[in-house]
Amino acid sequence: MAKKAVASLQTGSKRLSKAIKMVRSPKTGAYTFVEAIMDPTKVNDFFSKK
User: Which pTM was predicted?
Assistant: First the structure.
């Protein structure tokens, strides 16, 4: 169960995206949010891996 949220960021000449996904902790069962700022071409890889 991943929450997909992508915001586009522009800094100077670089174009970046901020991706947020919801990950369930195997230890407690609680959900946590994992955020990353990356190149837009790598967003799908970020959401596909666990």
Answer: 0.61
Tell me: the pLDDT tens digits for 1-50?
566 666 666 656 678 889 999 999 889 999 999 999 888 888 888 888 76
Q: What is the residue-wise DSSP string for 1-50?
A: ----EEEEEEETTEEEEEEEEEEE-TTT--EEEEEEEE-GGGHHHHHH--
Q: Rounded distance, CA 35 to CA 19, Å?
A: 6
Q: Checking phi first, is residue 48 left (phi over 0); if not, alpha (psi -120 to 50) or beta?
A: alpha
